[in-house]
Amino acid sequence: MAGSVPGPSGAECEAFSQDEDIAAYRAMLLIRRFEEKAGQLYALQAIQGACPLCIGQEASIVGLMMEARPTDPVITGYRTHGALLARGVDPRQVMAELTGRKSGLAHGKGGTARMFAPEHAFYGGHGNAGLCAPLGTGLAFAARYRDEDTVTLAFYGDGAAARGRVLEAYKAAARRALPIVFIVDNNTAAPGASVVLGSVPSAISESGRPFAIPGEQVDGIDVRSVRLAGRRAIERARRGDGPTVLEMLTYRYRGHGGMPAKAGGLGVRHIEDADPVVRTRARILASGSLSERALKALEKEIRDTVVAAAAFARGESAPEPGDLLASVEA
């Protein structure tokens, strides 16, 4: 296990190797370029319905996925695309679902918030605020019942964190010391210059305390800090000590429908300082892990992958009318 170093926010973070930094950058950049392309298709009305994007939250996703095992169940709210891509799901299948094509993950019938990939231990994709917390608790209970050595990761937003169903999930998970980590993406609509970890207890990170669930605020724009916090929480759950609440302090660059969020009058420099992808790229260049030329080649590869995924999706067929009720149960 690598050591730890002080992060940009002053908090402890994981000391990445060169290969880990590059792998994290590749995964976060794929999410970023995919979400940007999805936003473009949404603006062109090629994607119908809501299209919530996770631009700005890539480190929160990738840092946890770097620490989780491929068999650990993952369940999310309505910002689904990033977790799917970080889990290794084919971008073509994700884009095909977004555009309502038969080759999509839900055969074009689910859309952005109802994607499932059980072969990748991904269980949604849930539009109702906070619903993934009790469902994730159920996944953790099932793992315990089956004597499986897995830890469930449940991602949802700060707006859902105070919902009754979430607090009831905390209660149930704590009572049985279930193997689950609750990850709350506390994103603000207007990106700032830096993440400031709270000097006073946060209502979100402390929300599990009444049920004896520890919580932690994490610099959610530093993938190294996320991975280190994720390691502590996952190891705790895996050894049978129960759940943890991780509050990821991050930013939301796009609105709920895919449109850009207001930047609050901040300049580009301030926004870039709070960008997890830009931050990791700068660290790779500074360390000499890759040259500017090599980074640009990697970035072109990612861009070509996303362009190909969009072209594939738009060339696929939509579900037939007779397919609409297939796999639907009353």
**Any low-confidence stretches, pLDDT <50, length ≥5?**
263-269
Bulk shape: globular
Write down the Rg.
Answer: 19 Å
Helical amount: 40-55%
Domain tally: 1
CATH domain class: Alpha Beta
CATH fold type? Rossmann fold
- CATH homologous superfamily grouping: Thiamin diphosphate (ThDP)-binding fold, Pyr/PP domains
Query: What does the largest sheet look like?
Result: 5 strands, parallel
Q: Gap between N and C termini, in Å?
A: 49 Å
What is the total tally of β strands?
Answer: 7
Percent range for β-strand residues: 5-15%
Number of helices: 10
What strand line-up does the widest sheet have? Answer: 3-4-5-7-6
List the helices and strands in order.
EEHHEHHHEHEEHEHHH
The CATH architecture assignment turns out to be 3-Layer(aba) Sandwich
Classification by helices and strands: alpha/beta
Mean pLDDT: 87
